[in-house]
Amino acid sequence: MTELSATPAAILPDDAPTERLKRPTIWRKLRRDKAAMLATGFLVLVVALGVLAPWIAPYDPYDNNLRMMLKPPSEAHWLGNDGQGRDMVSRLLFGIRTTLSMGLLAVLAGGSIGAILGLLAAYFRAMEGPIMRVVDVLLSFPSILFGLAIAAVLGAGTTSITIALTVAAVPSIARITRGAALVVMQQEFISACRAIGMSDMRIMFRHLLPNCASTIFVYLTLQLGQTILLGAALSFIGLGAQPPTAELGTMAADGRNFLFFAPHVSTIPSVAIFMIVLAFNVLGDALRDVLDPRLRQ
Amino acid sequence: MLQHIAHRLLISVPVLIGVLLVGFLLLQVVPTDPATVMAGPTATHQEIEAIREAMGLNEPVIVQFGIYLGRVLQGDLGRSMISNTAVATELGNTVGPTVELMVASLIWAVPLGILLGTLAAVRRGKLSDRIIMAVSVAGVSMPIFWFGLMLIQYAGFHWKLFPFQGRGGPLWTLDGLNHIVLPALTLGGVFIGPVARMTRTSLLEVLGSDFVRTARAKGVSERRVVVGHALRNSLIPVVTLIGLQIGFLLGGAVVTETMFAWPGVGRLAVGAIVSADYALAQGAILVLALSFLLVNLVVDVLYAFLDPRVRAR
Q: Which residue ranges run through the membrane (chain B) (predicted)?
C-alpha cells in the first residue's frame, strides 16, 4: 500500500517537469527585449512607490492648504499643488497606490475565478457547454456596462468599481485558461494521472493548472493594463473612487475644472496612468511573443 | 444563409432574456420603493398600498418579471424618478446623438487605421513599421480622457478652433459639424491603434498565402498585389473585428460624452447613476446592452454574407 501511494510522486513530481525546463529560457529571451526590460523596471519602481507611499510621501495627500492652491511645480512641491492646495507628489504616490491596488485586486480575483471556470470547462466535458456559453455572453458585452450596472446597484465608489473590474476580467481569462488546459489535457501524463487513480481535484490543481500557469500569467499581465485603464475611466466619469480619495482617474477628473490655467493638475495623473498601462502592455506583448512565437508577427 | 441567420437569432434569445433579467433585478435591489416615490411625499399608507397593488408590486417576483417583460416589450421603461418624464422618451432623445458620435468617429478612424496598418504590413520590420506599431501600442494604452482633455485644452481653449461643450444641432448645419469635431477626434483617436494592428496582422497573413505568390509570379505590380489582391481579402476579418470592437467604442463613448457634455445615452446613464435615478439608469443600461446585442447580430450576419466559408460551417 505504501509502495503504491509512493509511485505517483516518483513518476510525476507535482511541479511538472516541462514547466521547470521552460522557465529559464523565457527569462533569457525576455532579457534580450530592451523595451520589455525597461517596462519591467518601470513597473517595479511604480509598485514600490505605491507600496511605500505612506512612508515616502513628503506631505499628507489630504492636507488642504488654500494658500498653495493650483501652484505650479516648485522646489518645495515638485509637481505643484492641486485645486485645494494639496501636494501633487503625495497625491500621485497615494493615487498610484489606490489605482494599482484596485486593478491588482480585480485581476487577481477575476483571474482566479476565470482560471477555475476555464479548468472546469476543459476538464469536465459536461460543464463545458454551460460555462463557455456564459463566458461568451459576458465576453460579448463591453466591460463599461458592468461598471455602469454595478455602480447603479451599489452606488458609485471604489468597491463597486473593483467588483465591476473583477467581473470584466473573468471571461477572457476563463477562455484563455480553457484553451491552454485543453492542450495540456491531450498530453500523456494526464492519462497517466488518471490511470493511477489520482483524484480529479488533484489532477486539475497540481498537474493541469501549473502547466497552464505561464499562459494565464501572460494574459493576466495584459489584462492588468486594460483593467487599470477601465478603472481610471470609470473613476474619471465619477463612478469610481469618490473625492477626496487620491485615485489617478478621480484626480484627472478633478483637474478638469482648472484645465485652462493649471493643466498640471489633470495632466500629471493622466500621464501616470498612460505610462503604467503602456508598461503593462509592452511587457504583456513581449511575454506573449516569448511564450507563443506563433503569434509573433 | 437563412439558416445561419435563424440559428444566430435563436441563440440570442437566452442572452436577451438574461439582459432583461439584469435590468429587472436592477430595479429590485435598489433601496427605494417605486410605489412610495410615485405616490409622492404626502401620500397616506393606504394610497401607497393601492399603488403597490396597481403596479403589481405585491405579486411574486416571477410574476413581476412577467409584468416587466410585457411593459418593456411595449416600450414602457418606467418614469424617471427625478424629472418624472417617461424613460423611453428621455432615451429616445439621446440615442441619435450617440449614434451620430460613433459614426463620426468611425468614419475617419477606420480608414486611417487601415491605411496605417497596410503601410506597416508592407514595410514590415522597417522603421516606419516600428513607428506605426509603437504609436499603436501607445494609442491602446492612452486613457481616452487624457486625449480628450488635451484636445479641449489646446484645440478648444488656446487655439479656439472648435467648440468643446455640447451638441450644436443636426450634422448638416455648420454649428452641428463644428461641435462634433473634438468629440469625434477623441473617440476615433483611441480606435486607430486597434484597427491598424488588426489590419497589419491580417494583411501579413494574406501576403504570405499562395494566391499572392501566384499574382507576383505572373508579374502583377506590387501595388496591385497589395491593394487589389491582398488587402481585399484581409479586410474581411478586419471588418468583423471592427464590429466586435463596437463595445470598446461604446465604452469610449460613455467617457467622451461625459467630457464634452454630449447629450447621448452614455452621459444620460452616468448622470442617472450619480443622481440615483434608478428607473432611468436601468432604461439606459438596457438600451445600451440591447443595441450592443443588435450590433453583434448584424456583424455576425454580415460576416457570413462577406465570407462564404462561415456559411458552410
A: 9-30, 101-122, 134-156, 176-196, 234-255, 284-306
Nearest CA in chain B to A150: B26
Q: How far apart are CA A224 and CA A281, in angstroms?
A: 9
Whether residue A72 is preceded by a cis peptide bond, meaning omega within 30 degrees of 0, is no
The one-letter code for the residue type at A260 is F
C-alpha dihedral sign at A191, A193, A195, A197: negative
Output B97-101 pairs: Cβ under 8 A, ≥24 positions apart: B97/B167, B97/B257, B97/B262, B97/B263, B97/B264, B98/B253, B98/B257, B98/B262, B98/B264, B98/B265, B98/B266, B100/B171, B100/B180, B101/B180, B101/B183, B101/B184, B101/B187, B101/B253, B101/B256, B101/B257, B101/B262, B101/B264
- Identify whether residues B59 and B174 lie together within a single domain: no
Q: How far apart are CA B278 and CA A146, in angstroms?
A: 15
Domain boundary among B23, B38, B73: B73
Residue of chain A whose Cα is closest to the Cα of B281: A152
- Partners of B152 on chain A (C-beta within 8 Å) are 259
Q: A-chain residues within 8 Å CB-CB of B207?
A: none
Flag whether B82 is in a domain: no
Same-domain pairing of B57 and B204: no
pLDDT score recorded for residue A10: 42
Q: Are residues B245 and B112 in the same domain?
A: yes
Q: Is B78 a member of any domain?
A: no
Closest in B152, B270, B292 to A239, CB measured:
B270
**CA of B39, closest CA in chain A: separation in Å?**
23
Number of domains in chain B: 2
Question: Which of A137, A141, A287 to probe by mutation at the B interface, max B CB count within 10 Å?
Answer: A141
B159 and B235: one domain? yes
Do residues B18 and B97 share a domain?
A: no
Query: Are A91 and A216 spatial neighbours (Cβ–Cβ below 8 Å)?
Result: no
The interface predicted TM-score of the complex, written ipTM, equals 0.85
What domains can be seen in chain A, in order of their start residue?
A: 2-67+76-296 (1.10.3720.10)
Cell 485543453 belongs to A182
CATH, residue B109:
1.10.3720.10
Enumerate residue ranges in chain B where pLDDT < 50: none
Is the residue at B81 inside a domain? no
Contact A152 B285 (CB under 8 A): yes
**pTM confidence score:** 0.86
Instruction: Say if the Cβ atoms of B149 and A274 lie within 8 Å.
Output: no
Residue B172 lies inside a defined structural domain of this protein: yes
Question: CB A153 to CB B201 under 8 A?
Answer: no
Question: B266: domain range?
Answer: 88-312
**Is pLDDT at A12 greater than 60 in this prediction?**
no
